[in-house]
Amino acid sequence: MTVIAVDAEQILDSRGWPTLQVSLTLHDGTTVVASTPAGASTGAFEAAEVRDGGHSFQGRGVHKAVAAVTGEISELLMSTPWTSITEIDDALRELDGIPNLSRLGANSTVAVSMAAARGLAYATGFPLYRWISAVTGSTALLPVPHFNVLNGGAHAANELDFQEFMLAPIGAANEEHAIQAGSEIYHVLANKVNSAYGGVGLGDEGGFAPPISHPSEALDLLTDAILAAGYTTDQVKIAIDSAANGFYRGDGVYRLGGKDLNRQQLADYYVQLASDYPLWSIEDGFAEDDHQGWGILFDRISDKVQIVGDDLYVTDARRIQSGADNGYSNAALIKLNQIGTVSQTFDAIAVARQNSMRCMISHRSGETGDDFIADLAVGTGVGQIKAGAPARGERVVKYNRLMRIEKQEPTLRYGLE
Fold first, then answer.
1. Binding residues for Mg(2+), per the UniProt record (predicted)?
2. Is 283 part of any known ligand binding site?
3. Which of 159, 313, 353, 356 has CA 20 to 30 A from 202's CA?
């Protein structure tokens, strides 16, 4: 792949804050584009964004990142032909010179890396998901979508401590049916929420944010909506992202629903929720540095429930390996911008697989119209993706891409890896 021009610009993400869009022009005039998402609830160990500071956009502008792309990175990309994404990403990291990419910014490198992956796929003549499948040695698989339909924590202006309550159509016949189920239940849930609480706002990811404070209230709403929409709790299960960093008080104490719980009590609470509701997955049940809590939860419930590490791992292969070695979880969340390049994202998935851990591909709360993660989920064959509610353009573009892939290749299997 030969790059003859590089451009970048500041655009707005779904929360109205600046982010970065990168365009690479290839030797035949074809242009490939990618844009960077941004998180509201971020882990301490994520790769670093570069923001402008100052008054504009409360310091969140990305003109410095744009300059990094159109300056140093542009010179690098146009200096030689490229044959692999690893070659490009290694060069980007060497150019930055700092492990967390804080000089050029992970918001710069991830958009460049994603665009480069599209360019390399184009050069092979394969659709992006097929190129990813070939590069990673994976069997392509249409993933179970996880729809975030009730929001709390850092994503919503209510008193609900847990951040995400998701619908997971594990028993759907195919991708189109799964997305249909998510949409139908979402609209039934909307009626239930409006009837019970009147008009309510939406969280960052398109889910409803009713004035509730206890996870059991949210789980009751979801269970009722699943059944009212004509589905069973075998067909559609529930996943939660507790985002426990947000209610951790330190020294093993968590403030949940106005009460202080120690590690054992919080683990007991999760076990009870899994017994009372069709709960199949718990993400970030404990804080990122509370390794003792992670171990307790894993020992208590990992044989029945998927335990997912997000802030714990931040898509870092080394941290995932440590989690496997120490028995922290049986699954890892995968977010491109947490680690800063496509190839390192592939590495994180590979290490999880080597340790018999599942993976879930994820969006961020600040999203764009880029549908790269849909191809990433299909191509790596991990069997799971979360991209928010089945509403709002920046969310549904990912789900629509999944249905389009299924239409192109109707023989692809749907479901968990």
1. 241, 283, 310
2. yes
3. 313
Please, which residues have CB within 8 angstroms of residue 223's CB and are 6 or more apart in sequence? 233, 238, 277, 278
* Per-residue H/E/C for the chain: CCEEEEEEEEEECCCCCEEEEEEEEECCCCEEEEECCECCCCCCCCCCCCCCCCCHHHHCCCHHHHHHHHHHHHHHHCCCCCCCHHHHHHHHHHHHCCCCCCCCCHHHHHHHHHHHHHHHHHHHCCCHHHHHHHHHCCCCCECEEEEEEEECHHHCCCCCCCCEEEEECCCCCCHHHHHHHHHHHHHHHHHHHHHHHCCCCECCCCCECCCCCCHHHHHHHHHHHHHHCCCCCCCCEEEEECCHHHHEEECCEEEECCEEEEHHHHHHHHHHHHHHCCEEEEECCCCCCCHHHHHHHHHHHCCCCEEEECCCCCCCHHHHHHHHHHCCCCEEEECHHHHCCHHHHHHHHHHHHHCCCEEEEECCCECCCCCHHHHHHHHHCCCEEECCCCCCHHHHHHHHHHHHHHHHCCCCCECCC
State mean pLDDT over 33-57: 88
Q: What is the pTM of this model?
A: 0.95
Q: Supply the mean pLDDT for the chain.
A: 95
Class of domain 135-408: alpha beta
Is 290 annotated to bind a ligand? Reply is: no
Angle ∠(125,130,135) on CA atoms, nearest 5: 95
Q: Are 406 and 166 in contact (CB under 8 A)?
A: no
Q: Which CATH fold would you assign to the domain 3-125?
A: Enolase-like; domain 1 (3.30.390)
Residue 107 has pLDDT above 90, yes or no: yes
Give the residue-averaged pLDDT of 201-211. 87
For 272, phi then psi, to 5°, come to -65, -40
Is residue 310 marked as binding? yes
- For residue 185, how far is the Cα from the chain centroid? 22
CATH 3.20.20.120, the chain: domain bounds: 135-408
* Residue 237, annotated as binding a ligand: no
